[in-house]
Amino acid sequence: MRWWTLCWAGLFGLYLLLAGEASGEELVAAALTAAAATGSGVLIRRLGGPRAYSARLAWARHAIAPLKALPVDVALVGGVLCRALIGRAAGTLLRQPFDSERDTPLAAARCALVVLGASFAPNTVAVGIAPARLLLHRLAPRPPSPDRAWPL
Predict the structure, then answer these.
(1) How many whole angstroms from its chain centre is CA 50?
(2) Cα(138)–Cα(148) distance, rounded to whole angstroms?
(3) How many C-alpha atoms does 119 have within 13 Å on its Cβ side?
(4) Residue 54 φ then ψ, to 5°
(5) Cβ distance 62 to 152 under 8 Å?
(6) Tens digits of per-residue pLDDT, 92-131?
(7) Nearest of 107, 126, 124 to residue 115 by alpha carbon
(8) I want to staple 123 with a disulfide (CB 3.0 to 4.6 A). Which of 6, 73, 101, 133 is the partner?
(9) How far is CA 122 from the centre of its chain?
(10) What are phi and psi of 96, to 5 degrees?
């Protein structure tokens, strides 16, 4: 069995799991969505080679960091929203030092993971990447991360 068959089946099942039902329309939507995503993956692998969008196993610990921050950020945002009810809304734009080179596929993948991870928790949204910095909007202020490569 080819890898893309397993990929399609996994995406098909994930769509149905997230949809919450298996009606005829959802089955068709799941099949088409899984086919589009799998086809995109096959095309990327063929055009860019098998390591076109590769990542490193050591990056897994950085991908878990936003999950650890989620409970704290939920509490922080809850406090900000309560203050907003009485008229004191907050929010700041933070210029986070960030090594934002994207000249290789591996560097571009790291950059994309940092932007995704920074926007995962409810307190922070990445709004842009500038040379040597990541622009973040935070509801509750927190100091910038000292890590320039993985500022999550």
Answers:
(1) 22
(2) 18
(3) 13
(4) -80, 160
(5) yes
(6) 788 888 887 777 777 777 888 888 888 777 778 888 888 8
(7) 126
(8) 73
(9) 12
(10) -85, 120
**Helix H or strand E segment including 134:** strand 133-138
Distance CA 123, CA 117 (A): 12
Q: From CA 124, how far away is CA 77, in angstroms rounded?
A: 10
Looking at the chain, how many residues does it have? 152
Which of 90, 7, 87, 81 minimizes the C-alpha distance to 43?
A: 7
**Amino acid identity for residue 34 in this structure:** A
Task: State how far the Cα of 60 lies from the Cα of 89, in Å rounded to an integer.
Answer: 35
Q: Say how far apart CA 145 and CA 70 lie, in whole Å.
A: 16
Helix (H, G, I), strand (E, B) or coil at 139: coil
| Residue closest to 139 by CA, chosen among 122, 114, 115, 116 | 122
